[in-house]
Structure formats: C-alpha cells, structure tokens
Amino acid sequence: MAQILAPTSQWQMRVPKASSSSGSLTTKMWGSLLFRQNKKGIAKGSVSFKVLAQNSNSTVNRIEDLLNLDLKPYTDKIIAEYIWIGGSGIDLRSKSRTISKPVEHPSELPKWNYDGSSTGQAPGEDSEVILYPQAIYKDPFRGGNNILVICDAYTPQGEPIPTNKRHRAAQIFSNQKVIDEIPWYGIEQEYTLLQTDVKWPLGWPVGGYPGPQGPYYCGAGADKSFGRDISDAHYKACLFAGINISGTNGEVMPGQWEYQVGPSVGIEAGDDIWCSRYILERITEQAGVVLSLDPKPIEGDWNGAGCHTNYSTKSMREDGGFEVIKKAILNLSLRHKEHISAYGEGNERRLTGKHETASIDSFSWGVANRGCSIRVGRDTEKNGKGYLEDRRPASNMDPYVVTGLLAESTILWEPTLEAEALAAQKLALKV
After folding, report:
1. Global confidence as pTM
2. Position 54 pLDDT exceeds 80
3. Cis peptide upstream of residue 263 (ω within 30 degrees of 0)
4. CB 314 within 8 A of CB 276
5. CA–CA distance, 245 with 92 (Å, rounded to integer)
6. Where would I find the GS catalytic domain in this sequence (predicted)?
7. Per-residue pLDDT, 33
8. Least confident range of 12-21, 42-51, 102-111, 193-202
9. What are phi and psi of 250, to 5 degrees?
10. In whole angstroms, what separates CA 134 from the centre of its chain?
11. Is 92 a residue whose pLDDT tops 60?
C-alpha cells in the first residue's frame, strides 16, 4: 500500500442494508478464462491455452439458472455460509444453513457446531466444536440477502480452541488503551496461482521456467500477466461483500498477485482478510486453479510471497507522530523473535535478505527501504507523522495474530529503560 487513508464511515456496519439488486458472481464469467493449458503441441519454453466455451443448452447452464434463482419474491429466508479456520491454522472450512429472515448483525445469528475430529481440532470421542458468529458480509456467490459469516471456534464449555486466534486478538483490541489509539491496518496479501494438475505457477511452462523477473510486476500482456480475470473477479467480489479492499496488482514473480485490504480498524482487519481469502478460494475453485499462500512457492531467484502490514495509531497520525513511530520501532526491535515466530510458517525460506526482504535473524528499519524489517515512507518522514510498514509477515500469516501483536507491542508493552536505551543506540533512534 502506498498510504493508509481514513477508514470509511461504514467500517462498523459490515453489511449494507439489502438492496433491490440480487446480483452475484456467476459461472458465465469463467467462459473466457484462459487458465487451462492445451497439452498437445506445446513447444518447449512456450505455453498454449484454450478457451472453455459453454453451450447455452448445456447442463452447466441449466444448473446455473437454478444457482441464480432470486429467492426474495418467494421467501424471507436467507442462506448463511458459516466460515471458520481449520486445524492447520490456515485452511478455511465452511457450511451453509437457512436463516428465517435477513440479518444485519452477527448477534442475530445462532451459534452452530461442527465435527472437529474431521478438521484436526478435536478428538473423535469428543468432537463437537461450537461456532460463534463474529462478522457478516454479503455473499457475492449467492447474491440477494444471503451472507458470509466469519466465525471463531470454542469448546462446548465456552473455551476458545487452540486454533482460535481471534479470541486473543479481540481481548487486545478491547483494551481501553488500544481503543483510544484507534489502530488502523492496511494489509497487502500476496498469493500465487498454480496449475491444478502439476502445482506449477499459472502461465509457466510445465516443468520449465519463464524469463527472469522484471517485466511481470504490474505488467500487461499475454506473456506477462497470468490470472488477471481471477484477480479482477476477486476485486469486485470483495467490494460486493463489503470488504474494504483498496487495490490490486500483478506481482514480481509471474503467476503471483497482490491485493490490499484497508484501512481496517482493530479486529476488523483480521475479519476482512480471512473473508477475502475465503472468497479467493471460492473463485479459484470455480476457475479450476489452485491458490497458494506459501511464502516461497518457487525456490531460486524468484520473489517470495508476503503479507506486508501497514500500521498506524492515532498518536502516529497526529503532529509529532514520527517520534511515536520511532518508539514503536524500538519496541518491535526488542520483540523481534516473538513476532517472527508468529508471522507465518516457512517464512525462513522467504526472509533471506534478498528479493526485497530483510534477514529473518536481524531487525532493521529504514526510510523507503524495502530491504528492511520495518519500512517508513518518504511522506511520513517529510510530514513528521503517518504510518509504518511491517514487511516481515509471510503470505500465510494469521491476520488476527499479526494485528494483535502489533497493537500489543506498540501500545500495551513497555520495555525496561535499560533495554530501551540499548535498542535506541543500536538502531540509531532518538526517541
């Protein structure tokens, strides 16, 4: 993200009131997707594609007519898709239920349960896990008044299960000191699109490599951009859902993309990212492409995938905020190991000091330096206030963990005076 702007006035609303439109994403949009390789007659080092044309009388289109039925004239009932995080801490699960009427707030929804033994979150002899609805979004797939519901998971006794990271984040964001600072987040989610059968990046020759990095970042053209339809469909679907997605672009490695969510306030940032990931999973499912959040999907001289997190507090955004930012950087340097351990699996393969990353073993900061742990923008330095960018989180990070840690380390945690002085000297910070 270039900068963190003021959040919209709707950030607390989640779901706009039902409109007369019943629009949703349909399978027609995939008729022109160029994503499946024609394996016959492929010259070495080149890629050929075919268009997936659909006959208007096909079974697919007859099913599509049913999928796009507008229920509003016939019933007040809606479909709620309950979404939660599975046992790996990164996989998303969901199931549907009928709700008697449209809702506007999670408190109007019932709790539900699922078989935790089938998701790696409970033993078979005591497998019931309870879903608590926490945030709702409009459903871009079913349209109408139907909704997506972000949930977190608890035992029947009301204790958060180990993979429920939202619970701890909510505690941090409900602390009055944090509330008073109104923490804003802008999260840059990078991801890689893979071919289904070979799990090789989209647009790459099977078993081979494209030309070196350089022309692909924000590039256009059939030889530079692979998966634009998916990125654009995801962009519109997130806007439809009510997610504050702020932009998207092709990334440095071909077949890799990025979208930005924010500014989001507090716990909303984690909810928005998880919902946006779910929507992306569903779109790639329809497109027949595999979504990867691996922080280093291809070894060698290729960029990895991160989830850079832009962050500011009220004090940072006000006059004199640059000194507050430097104090926050000092705190982050002292808790570097704690943050790194929570910033995503496999991140050591990405944070090597190369390909626009800092080394995982050391902490650094700089103005306009993308090779540092923490980057401060030129405008922030010039204006004496603004935000910082934490470039350490991996693409598969848990946004509840990262956003909560940033708030905890910079607002709630206080180092000893001795540690603060030593860190300031090491980082050449005057706080």
Report:
1. 0.86
2. no
3. yes
4. no
5. 20
6. 165-431
7. 40
8. 42-51
9. -70, 145
10. 17
11. yes
Residue 213, both tokens: 């990095």
- For residue 425, what pLDDT is reported? 67
Domain spans of the chain, in order of start = 173-427
Q: What's the CA gap between 123 and 120, in Å, rounded? A: 8
Backbone φ and ψ for 280, nearest 5 degrees, come out as: -65, -40
User: Contact at 8 Å (CB) between 427 and 333?
Assistant: yes
- Look up tokens 């090789």; give the residue: 200
| pLDDT at 307 exceeding the cut of 60 | yes
Whole-number Å distance between alpha carbons of 365 and 350: 18
Cβ 225 vs Cβ 219: under 8 Å: yes
Q: Which two tokens stand for residue 405?
A: 């840690």
Residue 260 to residue 127: CA distance in whole angstroms:
37
Instruction: Look at the block and give the residue holding tokens 């709700």.
Output: 99
User: How many CB atoms sit inside 10 A of residue 75's CB?
Assistant: 10
Q: Are strands 374-376 and 388-390 parallel, antiparallel or unpaired?
A: antiparallel
Q: Tokens at residue 401, please?
A: 């963990």
Q: Which CATH architecture has domain 173-427?
A: 2-Layer Sandwich (3.30)
What's the per-residue H, E or C state across the chain?
CCCCCCCCCCCCCCCCCCCCCCCCCCHHHHHHCCCEECCCCCCCCCCCEECCCCCCCCHHHHHHHHHCCCCCCCCCCEEEEEEEECCCCCCEEEEEEEECCCCCCHHHCCCEEEEHHHCCCCCHHHCEEEEEEEEEEECCCCCCCCEEEEEEEECCCCCECCCCCHHHHHHHHCCHHHHHHCCEEEEEEEEEEEECCCCCECCCCCCCCCCCCCCCCCCCCCCCCCCHHHHHHHHHHHHHHCCCEEEEEECCCCCEEEEEEEEEECCHHHHHHHHHHHHHHHHHHHHCEEEECCCCCCCCCCCCCECCEEEECHHHHCCCHHHHHHHHHHHHHHCHHHHHHCCCCCHHHCCECCCCCCECCCCCEEECCCCCCEEECHHHHHHCCCCEEECCCECCCCHHHHHHHHHHHHHHCCCCHHHHHHHHHHHCCCC
Upper half-sphere CA count for residue 211 (Cβ side, 13 Å): 8
What are the pLDDT digits (tens) for 96-140? 999 999 999 999 999 999 999 999 999 988 899 999 999 999 999
